[in-house]
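Note on ligand handling. Small-molecule inputs were canonicalized before submission; formal charges were left as drawn, and no protonation-state enumeration was performed. Where a ligand contained multiple stereocentres, the stereochemistry in the source SMILES was retained. For magnesium ion, this procedure yielded the string shown in the input block below.
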Amino acid sequence: MPKRTDLESILIIGSGPIVIGQACEFDYSGTQACRVLKQEGYRVILANSNPATIMTDPDFADATYVEPLDVAILSKIIERERPDAVLPTLGGQTGLNLAMELQNNGILQAHGVELIGADAQAITTAEDREQFKNAMQEIGLEVARSGIARCMDDARRVIQTVGLPVIVRPAFILGGRGTGIADTIEEFEAIAAYGLECSPITEILIEESIRGWKEYELEVMRDRNDNCVVICSIENLDPMGVHTGDSITVAPAQTLSDVEYQQMRDGSFSCIRRVGVETGGSNVQWAVDPDTGRQLIIEMNPRVSRSSALASKATGFPIAKIATKLAVGYTLDEIPNDITKKTPASFEPTIDYVVTKVPRWAFEKFPGTSGVLGTSMQSVGEVMAIGRTFPESLQKALRSLEQGREGLNADFGEVLLESIETATLLEAAAVPTPDRVFELEALLRRGVGIDDIYDATGVDPWFLDQMLMITEERQRLVGLSLDSATEQDWRRAKQHGFSDAQLGYLWNVSDAQVRRARQQVGVRCTFKTVDTCAAEFEAATPYHYSTYEDTDEVSIGSCRERVIILGSGPNRIGQGIEFDYCCVHAAFALRDAGYETVMINCNPETVSTDYDTSDRLYFEPLTFEDVSNIIEIEDPIGVIVSLGGQTPLKLADRIPPELILGTSPDSIDRAEDRERWNAVCARLEIPQPASGTAVNRESALAIAERIGYPALVRPSYVLGGRAMQIVYDDDQLADAMEQIAGSGSLGREGGLSAQRPVLIDRFLEDATEVDVDAIRDNVGEVYIGSVMEHVEEAGVHSGDSACTIPPTHLGSSTVAVIEDYTRRIAHELDVCGLINVQFAVKAGQVFVLEANPRASRTVPFVAKATGVALAKVAARVMLGATLTELGAQGLLNRVVSDHVSIKEAVLPFNRFPEADAVLGPEMRSTGEVMAIDMTQGLAFVKSQLAAGTRLPDDGMVFMSLADRDKQVGVKAAKVFVDLGYSIAATSGTAAALRNAGIVVALEVAKLEDSGGLNAVDLIDRGDLKLVVNSPRGRGPRADGDHIRKAAGLAGLPLLTTAAAALATAGGLRDWKRHPLRVRSLQEYHRRTSVGAPERNGAIVDDTEVC
Amino acid sequence: MNYRLVLADGEEFSGVGIGADLPNGVAAGEVVFNTVLTGYQEVITDPSYAGQIITFTYPHIGNYGVNSSDDEASRPFCRGVIVRALARRVSSRRSEEHLDAFLRRHNVAGIAGVDTRRLTRHIRESGAMPAAFGPADRDVLAEAALREPGTSGADLVAQVTTRSPYVVGSGPRKVVVYDLGVKRTMLRRLAELATVKVVPAHTTADEVLATEPDGILLSNGPGDPTEAGPILKELPELIGALPIFGICLGHQVLALAFGGRTSKMKFGHHGGNVPVQDTRDNKVQITSQNHNFAVQTGSVPGVRETHVCLNDGVLEGFVHDELPVFAVQYHPEAGPGPHDSYHHFARFAELMDACRGSS
Ligand SMILES: Nc1ncnc2c1ncn2[C@@H]1O[C@H](COP(=O)(O)OP(=O)(O)O)[C@@H](O)[C@H]1O
Ligand SMILES: Nc1ncnc2c1ncn2[C@@H]1O[C@H](COP(=O)(O)OP(=O)(O)O)[C@@H](O)[C@H]1O
Ligand SMILES: [Mg+2]
Ligand SMILES: [Mg+2]
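Structure output:
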């Protein structure tokens, strides 16, 4: 059927900030959707609050709304843009749920907007667990025994019929939030109650637990001619009970006979047909009883999902792109297969390799969390690896994780398991955790039988035997050495996925020596192609992976100069989508400039691993070995290491220096190495906080003696402010040193030693933090991308605090100083490309905190706020273009801003109810949102809305502040009261407020002193609308902890700094005056001017607040 | 033991022996590749592979073992199996035997550890061709590869067809199946709607008609349709007498009987993911296929071409303009492969009922 001509404009709802369960995969799918719709000639309207996405680049849509994903805001957008249709199936659960709300509120109908892809009926049938089960039983598919509950009484009734153990699953949730398995009635009470809270419609499904069964996923597609195909089958290594997002998963399914597989395929088709997904991709999840073969259908997602992104990368079949074409009316047979060009998309990809996905977690950042995996997703990122066999792909995946592991053990990381005796280790392995896969190998190495391990863990014997092959190969290797290994030995080892680093560990030599020896006997990797058809047809698409086979398939035909761009690997807290955005921009910019671009990355969620982002894609681990292999065959003119965050930067000093594009490794080191950095600042006479480096308790105390308290303590060589602490006295300092020296996750990261000293800085209290992104070219010109003023004071990690463009409270003289310092640092470090500098401004004086001569987290935000694509400019500069030239090409045209842009961080505390929701110098946010409006206040309110916090327009505000915050708190309270909010406060805070003449409606008892209502009571009674609680500087962190937890559980807006409270108050005040307005980036970017940043005038009325 | 695989054009691959031993050091046949991800047992036991060596493009083969219910014939007729990695520990409650043991039991040799992707690309470029593998030295193997006739010239049907007639199912209708190398799944499908009498390929038309069946199914089978033996002579007498359904080789011999032409394909269709469009309603079925010969488009007088392969335009099915005869090139019974095309059996039943009603 031809494409629909009755539609002109289509609205795509994005998935918003990166959160656990919803990451870059929806930028990947959304970007493809935008591309397709534009190519098809539709007017594309996009709503997404996430500035770090490619899809929100102004040239991907006709109208790009970087606005909160909220029904009220979306209605405004719909009113302005009058789209003919909404495509709800590419923006993850968020997009889907919002589309449903718009439908249920009658907004779509009111404006005659049609849902394409999946209609409301289909979405509810799939998402409402009860309707879904009934529907499935209706068509003869088996589902787990279950019942629905909307309150605890129902729940208790249901459990009678279903019987323990059960799994509790809330309706309309993503990433399994609030799901859990209960074996005892006590557990059931707790889990059911929490589940009801998590469900937006307070409804839970209580279901027989089939933990331990095999878990599978099928990615299916359907077109309007009712043609159905399976794109990919996925088998979970971790059996039922561990969320697919937290499971090691393998494609294709490995242990299903054709008879069983076809039964699952038939079932999946009946499912998608019954649910009524008219066109597009869906994800159907199955459980199989290993003993009886019983197949139960678990759920179906009527939209593209994390797994469909994985399936697309695993097979080369672009599900999102095709789904979009199907949504506008094409049928599969009308769409050509990109990869073969000759054959149509109406087929089922078949592959001749094995794909393994391994998640990456961040438990170490959330003290108090158990680290046990369950039915609710907790991972923050994932890697994918391709190998010809499972052992090879598993080992490649594990070394892709960048967590210090070189593969499946046979590395320094394995030592941690050696001390544990076998019985204990087997028990440990029975509990799913991030370490399980390594424990399994250790058990196999100790001779524990596959069947015993299977009984304990439920991990399929086929997988265990494949791991055992790795173990046996390792034992064979141990008997060899660098010189005794024959060509055959080398090949065997490599075909089992052993990295040079692992061989180096086994033979205790360096990986470089291993590499040399290996190449001497002529064992080199070969590159194969991902082609959707197992080589049956010729592939037009250059999408490759390495393996050790007979022949190489990569042919570098072109004579264009080649540039390799190193990606940023798995998402993790501190390094996320922003860096992928930068790499993608480099690919685009350099391709436009006539270079041939080569991308290396191992993150299946990303746009960078889309095969048409660069001229050639290598889906490979970002290690010295794997990257060197590619450099050898590509023979590039240069390698870009400064756009993918720390990952590629770590490789910089091992790549031939002449190949490093942009800032030299030595300059990078001068910024990263503490001593050398201090020298730089001294030379430039730029003030830094007083500091010193300590290797033990004594030296630490001595330094504190000199610089004074409070002090900031941080281990060296850690990312994202890992384990940084603020200490206020000798005891706290001693404790901190103790922790860092001590083992645990930090011990793994290096602990304390002369090589890894602890850095101790004077902590600047109540200082304003400032970020600057700038670019310097090789003739020494510097372009200041933007100066960003943070809302939260220094001490809250830059990645976790909100920041503003343009700065709203810094005097222009201060800004001038900051820009000048930035220039001087850029010159001194001889930067070529991007540099990010962080400052703290205290009482008018500017201190520099750190400089990173590389792309920073804020680059995309700056680009969207100012209209200048910094990453593109930087990429060109690194290849020799000057800012003057690029300016002449219009790449530096800046938006004339009559608006304020705010970036706000989004934190994952709702995933970790046990963790304290307070902000500090250790970064913990998973994502960010951007908000733009007339005044800083309005932009701030929007940013809160975008981050998921609905600020109340009346009611009672609770305040409990640390002494140092009281001054600012008073200012905030004053505004709240003026605006008609009433104030409740704990005694100390109340006193401070009263002194300032502010009426305190209710004084609240501290939790410790008995008698009287305390904050938690008030929260539970629903009396409070907003909670402001900043932790006491001195005294235990835990103080106020339960208040924050209670607020979190009750879903109350929670502010943990006085600064945020003040900004909120200001925002609410502006909000009462003007309603929030929506504007597209294209409108904001319409007026541009060449050159210097704008001084902003439009927001004078904010100053009086401060 | 280290094995070598040598193709007729001299291309060479190394690997290790699996399955049955090779006393004289050599196994020879025509190398083809199959792209299924599941269903290796059904493929290996499909009689249509007589004379051929099967390369599996999916690297891990044998993962879920083999079991008696998934056999497509009493034994494999293929000349060998080429895989990248043969599973060691199998995992499936359905498994009764390890694939390696199965191959030994049926005296089929194989070679593992081969860069099957390189081999597949070579066949894609140079076409399916004779080859030999085993522990013997290069020259011996090369020699054997050159001597190997492959699938041309030999009446392979005679080797795979049943020695004597037998009956399966007890359905209301009476169907005679000409066993040109029939797969059990095909009989299972038919048995759901008819009492099925399976007869040897050399059975005469008179013998068949004497049993007064409601319809005839011409099964799949190995090799070149023009070499398909007696059936070619018998068909003219059968056509028109009663409903006929041809599958795969059956489709090809029917085309020949109507005066159509067949030709050998470069490397054929062997897989479970082939898109076939029904030109009447444009619906696409993902089909299971296994053929090296094809009926030339437009070469068959008096028929309507109903099905076409979307990958390469190969003719995949036709129905006769007047006579109750239709055929498909692919495998509607699946086994292994998708179930998208079961409806052809219902269609056959309707045709038989219609004809019975009218006569
Ligand atoms: N009945 C069950 N018993 C045990 N584990 C289950 C059951 N149902 C689901 N699970 C586990 O919980 C995970 C999440 O369930 P799912 O329905 O997929 O929710 P989500 O919508 O979060 O993906 C699944 O991946 C599976 O491992
Ligand atoms: N001397 C200091 N005084 C106050 N806050 C500081 C000081 N040094 C660092 N910080 C805070 O700690 C955060 C993390 O420190 P930073 O050096 O940026 O580490 P990272 O390399 O993880 O970004 C900063 O964003 C800032 O808020
Ligand atoms: Mg799921
Ligand atoms: Mg920083």
